Amino acid sequence: MGSNVTAAFSHAQLLAWRNEPIEIGAQAAKSAALRFGNSTWIRDTPPCAKGCIASIVRNNETVVCDAWPSPEALDENDRVVLIVSPDTTTSWLAYLDHLSRGGPERFAIAPLSRLSGATFKLWLIASARLILSPGKRTIHVEACHDALGVGLAQVALDFGANVLAGPIDPDRHLPLAGVSRPTERTFVGLTTLVEQAGRIPRTGKNDPFAGAKL
Q1: Which among 146, 150, 164 has a CA at the least distance from the CA of 32?
Q2: CA-CA distance, 196 to 151, in Å (whole number)?
Q3: Which side of the chain, N or C, has fewer Cβ within a 10 Å radius?
């Protein structure tokens, strides 16, 4: 289980940065780079569950939750997808503090919002990275391209996300002169998207979540 850690930034600072996306993005990207280097995992995952406030993906099966799950409810290699609205930001930061002090040694978190614009969605990813990075545990922050769209998911790599997650479509059979489009949700398209963001794509059996069949 996780040990107590202290976040580098106060809740007041993180909330103030809702209006300063460039600053929080820079801080979160720095934190992700210190923890994971220049690599970005491309992870084939089930579609994000709809109509719920949270879900846990465990062994490739989705469990729908009626509340954000407690750290004690999580297992090693779980993926936690959480829906956050702008009027619950204070509760969101408190929840991240709770996660930072408990739960398994390795899990992934994918924060999303259904109602707000791109800036708030990026703030959710950045705040998760900044609160959950301290300590020795491996906590991945995912950008779900099926929920965010591939364009915003690519931007999220500059806001602390170290994983591009979501269902991966089969690669197209291209003519000799054909090129993949980085807007495609294929392995080739997503790899191109990660490379365009200046990062090294990683996938396959070396994924630390491969044992969970994610």
Answers
A1: 164
A2: 11
A3: N
